[in-house]
From TrEMBL:
It comes from Acetobacteroides hydrogenigenes. Keywords: DNA-binding, Phosphoprotein. PANTHER family: TWO-COMPONENT RESPONSE REGULATOR. The keyword Glycosyltransferase does not apply. It holds the Pfam family Response_reg. Residues 5-121 form the Response regulatory domain. Residues 145-210 form the HTH luxR-type domain. One of its GO terms (molecular function) is DNA binding. PROSITE patterns: HTH_LUXR_1, HTH_LUXR_2, RESPONSE_REGULATORY. This is DNA-binding NarL/FixJ family response regulator.
Length: 215
């Protein structure tokens, strides 16, 4: 089985090297390169084509948000996962707009990191559940904005909750005993009704407007 090619981008050498060692021990992942700044990453991207990128938010010279925007201009379909710490939730909306596929806490277990990489490699999105609940809590404190009447069905709400919990389309189909094609249709309807351009934006919309209860 061909392994998923990953580039690590983080300015903390000890963290980067440790994560690389753990990922390289897995059967699914191969770390093909690493960078300590956004600028170094973009140079690597000129000669190395990864399957997935793990990107730190705060770095010197060029931060993760700027590097992500530049990388996606050149490679629009490149799956990028943000490595975040608690307290960096203020960046999330901007990163979603930039086109990232999800967020992981930097203190996540390696099993969760591997799961997230595999999920976005297969075309899904991934949110660390601890991070997601933190975002929900913070936004509930700041506002009580309700969604306009979107005419979302009960089944669509069920699908939306599972999307927010990080389930793939195949997993949702199995859990709800419906076909993969039906899940695709529900997801498309949700994207259209909420004017979200991807699944990550859909999750953030659901959080902001309290469309689902994830407690």
């Amino acid at each position: 089985m061909e392994r998923i090619k990953v580039i690590l981008v983080d300015d903390h050498t000890l963290f980067r090297k440790g994560l690389r060692m753990l990922l390289d021990e897995s059967e699914e992942i191969e770390v093909v390169d690493e960078a300590s700044t956004g600028k170094d990453f973009l140079k690597i991207l000129e000669k190395v084509q990864p399957d997935v990128v793990l990107m730190d938010i705060n770095m010197p010279q060029m931060n993760g948000m700027e590097a992500t925007k530049e990388a996606l201009k050149q490679h629009p379909s490149l799956p990028i996962l943000m490595l975040s710490m608690h307290g960096e939730e203020e960046y999330f909306d901007k990163m979603v707009d930039a086109g990232v596929k999800g967020f992981l806490l930097k203190n996540s277990e390696v099993e969760e990191v591997i799961k997230a990489i595999c999920t976005v490699f297969r075309g899904g999105s991934y949110f660390s559940q601890e991070l997601l609940l933190g975002v929900i809590s913070g936004r509930n404190r700041r506002n009580n904005e309700e969604a306009k009447d979107l005419a979302i069905t009960e089944r669509e709400i069920e699908v939306l909750k599972l999307i927010c919990l990080g389930y793939s389309n195949a997993d949702i189909a199995d859990k709800l005993f419906i076909s993969h094609r039906t899940v695709d249709r529900h997801r498309s309807n949700l994207l259209e009704k909420t004017s979200s351009r991807n699944s990550v934006a859909l999750v953030m919309y659901a959080i902001k407007h309290k469309l689902v209860d994830l407690d």
